[in-house]
Amino acid sequence: MATWYCMQGCGACCNLTPEDRPELAEYLTPEELTLYLSLVGEDGWCINYNHGDRLCQIYPDRPSFCRVKPDNFARIFAIAPAEFDEFASHCCEEQIEGVYGPRSGELKSYQQALPAVAESI
């Protein structure tokens, strides 16, 4: 079983390109969708993402849909807490692959760290 974790210096989730997420209106409220779309820069990346250090500039105040937590995933995706780790890990792998490529260092790093994270729990 995979255990979800956020890989520092990745930032793949900050690529908000709406065309890559056609189902946004299915799981975000109208208010959240408006906020989401307002965060998308011309390059598809969140306007609050710093490419230099690969960090969110509003991390403590980021929107709820940016917070990968069991309760948010239950609300947004109807994922039971017991399924959270597996689902979130899979989402991260898909997003990292889509943003950086299937042979990227980011994807390899994420996949290599998953077993170590699971063992530490």
UniProtKB/TrEMBL annotation:
Protein name: YkgJ family cysteine cluster protein
Domain of life where this protein originates: Bacteria
Any matching Pfam family: CxxCxxCC
Species for this entry: Synechocystis salina LEGE 00031
InterPro entries in UniProt: Puta_zinc/iron-chelating_dom
